[in-house]
Amino acid sequence: MPWSVGGLRLGRDWVAAPDPAALRARWAALTGSEGAERERLFRPSRSRRPDAGAAALPGQRSAATARFADAPGPCPDPVRVLREPFDEQWLLPDQRLIDAARPELWRVRDEHQLFLVETPDPLVTAHLPVGRLGRIRPLHRRPGGTEPNLAPGLLPLLGARHGGRVTPGDALCWILAAGRPGPRGYEVPLAVGSERWRAGLELGHRLLSVQLRGGEPPRLPGGRRPYVRSAVAGWPRELAYDAGSETLTLGSGTVSPVPAGAWEYEAQGVRVLPAWFAARTAHRGPDADGLAALGPAEWPQSWTSELLALVTTLALLAELAPERAAFEPGPVLSAEALRAAGVLPPPAWTRRPASVLDHQEEGPGGQFALL
After folding, report:
1. Residues 276-287: pLDDT tens digits?
2. What are the pLDDT digits (tens) for 38-87?
């Protein structure tokens, strides 16, 4: 996947939140302030200040491009993003508020796109990843699921070797199953034997379906499902886990069964469930101030539904982890063979964004962007 992009740098945490209503409240508070108070709430950086304009983000045609101090415009509709590993939140899609929004990713963001995030255990998401997750590799270089972000000639070579058509999604699944961090970066060995290739695809498809959480809600290992045993009331102050009863406690609320594998699951060295809970209580913490302190007064029911889905995802990934760790591709294609087939090295143009403009994009102050 030659084309990769660095992660989005927000520059100010208040532009993202687990609750879209909180983002609208923050926008209202910011636009309702003036002078020094607006400057304080905005939290300027070298890249973004209230008195500077910025281009509209691709695909966000209603976004304002005038200087924020002059004409903030209406609140943009929050969009779903991946804020931390397995933590889907919301973002205000206004480039005037984001230090490095990576417009090249917004141009290829649509219902056909998937993003691979380079982590020790790679993440795949249909939502735009933001923050310091790792380098981002889109599956497709253009909107509409066209032009795969793969070295030219790779898919035909794999198809000829393994006796059938190989899709970009197949290549992504193989990466999930066989890819490992290495001394030169993330390394993906390519199996010579068709039996190992098919085994890797089958494992990768299972990993992908769990990560994307699409369709019918999956069940826990053994066919179980987590349920809310007692509703979360008011605001839970802490998250606790009892391994004996497999119960997760949020204040007065309880959820079970929660397998130990879900509770202990880590990503980038951090346990996911406690981090997910901390992100939803951050606006009530002693360090929260300014716009970041605006959030729900009571625990939203939608967060409990998200928690149930997250528990299932983590439990299934924990169950698959030993199988993935033990997977061996067997004999692999050598770099010499890939060079002989014209797959390596990928052409320089494959490392750059494609030209994907099908409409004019508005630049700062209403000018049209020249790209």
Report:
1. 999 999 999 888
2. 999 999 999 999 998 898 999 876 567 889 999 999 999 999 999 999 99
DSSP per-residue letters across 210-267 = HHHT-SSPPPPTTS---EEEE---S----EEEETTTTEEEETTEEEE---HHHHH-EE
The beta-strand segments (E) located in the chain are: 16-17, 79-84, 87-91, 115-117, 123-125, 128-129, 136-138, 140-142, 146-148, 180-182, 185-187, 227-230, 239-242, 247-250, 253-256, 266-267, 270-271
How does 30-52 read in b/e, with b if 16+ C-beta sit within 10 Å?
Answer: bbebeeeebeebbbeeeebebee
Q: Which residue matches tokens 């699921």?
A: 145
What is the model's pTM?
0.93
Q: Once rounded to an integer, what is the mean pLDDT over residues 204-214?
A: 91
Structure confidence at residue 32 (pLDDT): 96
Q: What's residue 60's pLDDT?
A: 77
263 token code pair: 């509770």
Q: What is the DSSP letter of 74?
A: S
pLDDT at position 178 is 96
- Structural contact between residues 57 and 95, judged by C-beta atoms closer than 8 angstroms: yes
